Amino acid sequence: MYEKLTRARSGDPLNHLYFAYGSNLDSAQMRRRCPSARLVGAAILDGYRLGFAGQSAAWGGGVAT
C-alpha cells in the first residue's frame, strides 16, 4: 500500500522525513543516533535519484552523491 505524502505529518519544524539507504536502514544504528525516530515506511521520492559518483577509501564501495 502506498500513501502519498506532500509534507511532513506535523507542523513541528523538528519533525521531518528522513530518506535512507544501505547501512542507514539498520534500525539499531538509527536508534543509537536518534532514539526518538520512528519508522514510517518505504517511500519513493519523485523527481530524485540516487547516484554513486565516487568510491570510499574506507571500505572500497560506492559513495552516494
TrEMBL record:
The keyword Lyase applies. GO terms for molecular function: gamma-glutamylcyclotransferase activity; transferase activity. It comes from the Bacteria. Substrate binds at Y18, F19, A20, Y21, G22, S23. Keywords: Lyase, Transferase. The keyword Cytoplasm does not apply. InterPro entries: G-Glutamylcylcotransferase, GGCT-like, GGCT-like_sf. This is Gamma-glutamylcyclotransferase.
